[in-house]
Amino acid sequence: GDALVLPTVRVGCSSHHLGFAGTVSLRASTLEAICLDHCTSLAAHGFRRVLIFSAHLGNHPVLGEIGPKLAARLPSGPEVIAFADPAAVLDAWRGAAQRVAGLAGHVGGHADVAESSIMLAVRPDLVRDERAVAGFTGVMDDELLARVLTSGVKAVAPGGVLGDPHGMSSELGFSCLEAVADLLVAHATARYRPLA
């Protein structure tokens, strides 16, 4: 079908990373405003469906609440589905890591084997695998994710790594990307109403 992929919003809600020098973050209200402005523009051009997704799991709390807000602000606008399930993304990455390399336990959510492999797949020039170090290697469940988002990554992982990047590969990165793409397709397919 016909689809338009908008440019990535490169800065997100990253207050949980502010303990690390150089972090730039948006307020939740700013991310909401960006999404509203994008959807308003798309509605003006006749778009009838919008899928909002963020690879940055820190944006998911905002995206989890944005659908009804956009529907209220754009009553005759496009049908908006916002994907906001960080646990499903982590599960998809764990599944890919297990299938490709038997490394599901290395997935933790930040600078781990999945994210590092994705970077190897899309921008290998930015990866310094000789500097890879394991960080917090416990299970990233909903309770821990809530702690990371409220107390900051540094409270759980002083070096910023949630998981273990060892074993990263571009093959695993492509598998992680495909797993999340499949997840998004299933999510959207299950929620979109048929177009008239």
Comma- or semicolon-separated keywords:
single chain; 196 residues; mainly alpha; two-stranded parallel sheet; two-stranded antiparallel ribbon; 7 helices; globular
Any overview of this molecule?
This protein is mainly α and 196 residues long. It has 2 domains: 15-84, no CATH class; 86-180, no CATH class. It has 7 helices and 4 strands. The protein has helices at 28-44, 60-73, 86-101, 113-122, 142-151, 153-156, 170-191; strands spanning 49-52, 79-82, 107-110, 162-163. The strands form 2 sheets. It has a two-stranded parallel sheet. Strand 1, helix 2 (60-73) and strand 2 (79-82) form a beta-alpha-beta unit. Helix 1 crosses helix 2 (60-73), helix 3 packs across helix 7 (170-191) and helix 4 (113-122) packs across helix 7 (170-191). It starts with 27 loop residues before the first helix and ends in a 5-residue tail after the last helix.
